[in-house]
Amino acid sequence: MQSDKAQQTHISFDELHALLARIFARHGTSNEVAAILASNCASAQRDGADSHGIFRIPGYVATLQSGWVDGKAVPQVTDAAPGFIAVDAKNGFAQPALAAARALLVEKARANGIALLAIHNSHHFAALWPDVEPFAREGLVALSFVNSMACVVPHGGKRALFGTNPIAFAAPRAGHEPLVFDLATSAIANGDVQIAAREGRMLPEGYGVDRDGRPTCDPRAILDGGALLPFGGYKGSALSMMVELLAAALTGGNFSFDFDWSGHPGAQTPRTGQLLIVIDPSKGAGSNFAARTELLVQQMQDAGQPRQPGDRRYRERAQSARAGIAVDSEELARLRQLAEAA
User: Fold this and answer.
1) Number of domains composing the chain
2) Is the pTM above the cut of 0.90?
3) Pick the catalytic residue: 17, 27, 47, 52?
4) Domain residue limits at 196
């Protein structure tokens, strides 16, 4: 079961980042890759995204130990066209591939109004919003699409075919933090199913099926040969299909069903692809995009929607800045052991 607050401790972002970076480097990544992955995981933990924070560290370690991913890969960036960048992640993680091409992506978006970054031969095992939020802080609009391992049954189907296939979006908002959302096209994120199983909680109806295709609320049955369902029935299924085409077919990455990690026991990171689209809204009809975003948000609030995408993360971020990042004491001890393990 999840620990209560009495069993938690608080550490700063810098302390958690340094600890996670030591773990990654100790278990097979370069120092550069370690710093990038640690930033992603520490940011997710800071912002209250428990299913993509330190919860993921054992999966990263197991994957690195299995030899499935190259933690020291150096991405190869290709300037493919005026508005198109291709990156071969060289069987490494997607975040270092994005970092290697980021400056060129922004340059192209500002020059042309829009630019694409197509990453293939990559592993993405983290929250997707940290990939897009920084662009919005520079006044740009960003979308990203990532496919994962087959664990979602297409609408009306009988076996897992799609990944959870998240979509992330970020836009600048005048006078406020960027408007950011990150959602899986499955009814629930796979990491949240794992947490529910660990804590012994049942899930709501409509989230998954067991190995025989029967609806189930038991997260263990979903994880043990079962599968997730798409959100919104055929609508979520169609969006998941779109992500497969954009993140895999367009980039040259593997489809969610298209890789075999059976020879690497312990591997957990899907070897697929990622697409980012970055837009410079100043090239549009006016230069007041952020103000118009704020106008829309105000109208949404007036219509009765008090909470906007990203609000909870920003509140958690502010709380973490004041009091430190809350971490289960036993989990922190295990992280420190991993940081020292050979």
Assistant:
1) 3
2) yes
3) 52
4) 187-229
